[in-house]
């Protein structure tokens, strides 16, 4: 038993050491890059809509009401959801329940964005003259899949990881087995959201700029830059979330506590 | 030590048992679904191109030459690459080196598909009357990122996991540390490829069907079905590849051998 304990201690020491050397730099770089890209996408879509597309309006002007759609969907599905997922990598020193609560709050902030963004596109189609048909494009079908997965994740997450805490011990096994599935589908929902944004941007650009898109004017470059920010965001987020070493593991926390 | 060994054995027995119960069914279901979706996407794109878009030609007919682009890109980036990654989950009983070799062969099969698919779209633009500009759309920019990541993964994988085997012991640590990075970027390249296909399909559909897309005729439904097959493929592949329990681990293989 003594040998086992020493072996464990040695391994923890190694883990800590390797984090001190190169991993902290890598971790901070990747997290900083992720934050810049998540906020960068929101800033770029706001700039695009305000500077080139005439800003916002509610249903008195359906064309401008549409502009709420890309901004709110990127705010909800990319920026807020992205931050919410990053919390599980950044919040290494906080108590797990606080990380969980902020994870829920950030996702809860995404809900009104998605709902209003959805109403905005419906209004802008239905109130247009002549009205534009709904739910025909593959972008809209992908949007349904993304929103469905998001809702499912939110409901399952809320009940399993917060409500079921009321009978903590009885549900520990179930909750633990659900964690990797919830995490996998969370990353997947984010990737699908990025893909849906990219098809939406393609649609909007072709409908708005038409043939002039191919001459890569100012607006076209801004849209392509927004698309590339989303792609880079997806790459950096996937790397940050899937990198084994970045995982916030209770095991390490417990061993550190036992050493103190 | 005796106690430790018993504990180990007990854990392996548990692993085997839990696989026998529910995980085998889940594993086979998910792998079968992934195979159906990977082949399904190829069949659907072939059907679309042959039945609605007039089939194939080389550069004597640039419009028909374009049709090679979606088919070959889906064949290379989705079907072959998908199979190549699935091998690491399916080949549980084979020697690792065979899995590696077939992983390389499937990816090597993807290379000519991607190259000819790329030449086909260039030709179809340059030989059109009037010529169509290249590399302006976000689809093309995403295509560059995807092809770049694919090439990087191929070269790094080939040198690190096959060539460096010549001095096996000296490079073991380096190779082991590279495995999770190679795997993460592999899944990411697949997801990016799916997203790029979806923006490409959006472009082509709007350019070809125009306003009639919104009436969801036969062809529009086929294209949307193809898009949904790709989305479902991305979901099932991510689940299969990221699910911890499905991972082919040398640790289990070694313990099983020691039991025999």
UniProtKB/TrEMBL annotation, chains A, B:
<feature type="transmembrane region" description="Helical">
    <location>
        <begin position="27"/>
        <end position="51"/>
    </location>
</feature>
<feature type="transmembrane region" description="Helical">
    <location>
        <begin position="71"/>
        <end position="89"/>
    </location>
</feature>
<feature type="transmembrane region" description="Helical">
    <location>
        <begin position="221"/>
        <end position="242"/>
    </location>
</feature>
<keyword id="KW-0479">Metal-binding</keyword>
<keyword id="KW-0813">Transport</keyword>
<keyword id="KW-0349">Heme</keyword>
<dbReference type="InterPro" id="IPR043205">
    <property type="entry name" value="CYB561/CYBRD1-like"/>
</dbReference>
<keyword id="KW-0249">Electron transport</keyword>
<keyword id="KW-1133">Transmembrane helix</keyword>
<keyword id="KW-0408">Iron</keyword>
<protein>
    <submittedName>
        <fullName>Cytochrome b reductase 1 isoform X4</fullName>
    </submittedName>
</protein>
<feature type="transmembrane region" description="Helical">
    <location>
        <begin position="101"/>
        <end position="121"/>
    </location>
</feature>
<dbReference type="Pfam" id="PF03188">
    <property type="entry name" value="Cytochrom_B561"/>
</dbReference>
<dbReference type="InterPro" id="IPR006593">
    <property type="entry name" value="Cyt_b561/ferric_Rdtase_TM"/>
</dbReference>
<dbReference type="GO" id="GO:0046872">
    <property type="term" value="F:metal ion binding"/>
</dbReference>
<dbReference type="GO" id="GO:0016491">
    <property type="term" value="F:oxidoreductase activity"/>
</dbReference>
<feature type="transmembrane region" description="Helical">
    <location>
        <begin position="178"/>
        <end position="201"/>
    </location>
</feature>
<dbReference type="GO" id="GO:0016020">
    <property type="term" value="C:membrane"/>
</dbReference>
<keyword id="KW-0472">Membrane</keyword>
<feature type="domain" description="Cytochrome b561">
    <location>
        <begin position="33"/>
        <end position="242"/>
    </location>
</feature>
<keyword id="KW-0812">Transmembrane</keyword>
<feature type="transmembrane region" description="Helical">
    <location>
        <begin position="141"/>
        <end position="166"/>
    </location>
</feature>
